[in-house]
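User: Before I run my own analysis I want an independent prediction to cross-check against. Here's the chain; please return only the structure tokens and, at the end, one sentence I can use as a sanity check.
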Amino acid sequence: VQLVESGGGLVHPGNSLRLSCAASGFTFGRTTMSWVRQAPEKRAEWLSSIDGSGLRTYYRKSVKGRFTISRDNAKNTLYLEMNNLDAEDTAVYYCSRGDGNDSGLPPRHQWGQGTQVTVSS
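Assistant: Structure tokens:
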């Protein structure tokens, strides 16, 4: 199983960024996937999940309306579109197999290696 995130970087407040996660080694199209982030000196937090079909999506309240999770099962790729970013969004972003919610995270061993997003002027 391999999950490789990309698309992170330095962006100015108010700008947008799209993260990608290339998946391999498992049946991607049948697997619920999630995005998780961890800011410096803070606990990791679940952001969003999407079912295998892509028809059902779930979001943390604080990012709903700004972030959009999607997937392309033909490309085995998961995405996270992030809009109107601010400094509070600075974190390492991880894609993960499995689902989460406001109260719990996918298992840590199911996460990718992460991609850094820094929002700064």
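Sanity check: The radius of gyration is 13 Å.
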